[in-house]
Amino acid sequence: MSHKKLGEWNATAICGNDITSSVLYVSALTIGVAGQYAWISLLMVAGTLFLFRKIYSEVVGALPLNGGAYNVLLNSSSKNNAAIAATLTILSYMATAVISASEGMHYLHHIFPSFNVVLATLGLLLLFLLLTVQGISESAIVALIIFILHITCMLVLIIFCGIFIVNHGVDFFIQNWHMPLQSGGIFKALILGFSAAMLGISGFESSANFVEEQKPGVFPKTLKNMWIAVSVLNPLMAILAIGIMPLSEVSEYKNSFLSHMAETYWRKNIGNNYFCKRCISFKWSCSYLFCRSKRLDKKNDAGQDSS
């Protein structure tokens, strides 16, 4: 019995929630090692992703089976190579789950500083473990709603930060641009920034994990949409960050980066309203947790398909 296939935007939302949620942490990490040149490192990653997109689209298009890189290697190489790829993929997913849970709890800790981040992270991982054991299912409609909300909030933050720069000038940008690099020369800063920025494209392979559930021709479109999103959001957030705050503040608030950007705009343009600032921070923590929870659901489904 045939089931309904996913269209472009439903499929994009499922994997897009994954990769676009990286904007909540990757810009701060890249600025931490590349300083004012972080946006260049992020653009370098976007260029790398563009080349990989072409290759991945052709390979998976020729072998449209769920499981991503595992099934590709299983059908084009030896079983040992496929098993190694599967093992590394599982380890990657485990590391991503820990990083995602920790980052989400740091955003929540920005609002309620009384709880322990480590214990809260363990509790969140345990919660999703129980949901996975119970056989949690994926909802394309819910994923699409979350995706639209997430992108809308990103666009609102970008607009407000742009307004901040228009109203207050480019003094911060000029000051940050002439700051000495902590990592040494420009080349070393770009390489270190590139390495850190690669975390921002974690999840690009997600679409291949459910390619059989997509309508014909949808898979390349999901890759294109994800590439556009990550190529615009991550570098733009890095540029805006060095235009509205000193670099030292980026390191100080790297675990709740976008919350601090929103609060900076609010504090300088509207006022020091505690309730409104908490609401802004709460939005970012919820957005991160929802986006990453969809990723964990999809990884579980992909693992079942591969086995």
Question: Mind explaining what this structure looks like?
Answer:
75% of the residues lie in helices and 0% in strands. The protein has 307 residues and is mainly α. The protein has one domain (8-306): Up-down Bundle (Amino acid/polyamine transporter I), CATH 1.20.1740. Helix 2 (26-34) runs antiparallel to helix 9 (186-197) and helix 7 packs across helix 12 (257-269). It is globular. The two termini are 22 Å apart.
Would you list the SSEs in sequence order as H and E? Answer: HHHHHHHHHHHHH
SS strand fraction:
under 5%
Low-confidence stretches: 272-277, 298-307
> In the CATH classification, which architecture applies?
Up-down Bundle
- Number of DSSP strands? 0
Largest β sheet strand count, sense and barrel closure: none
Structure classification: mainly alpha
The Rg value, from CA coordinates, equals 20 Å
**Looking at the structure, what is the overall shape?**
globular
The domain count comes to 1
* Total number of helices: 13
The top level CATH class name: Mainly Alpha
Distance between the termini: 22 Å
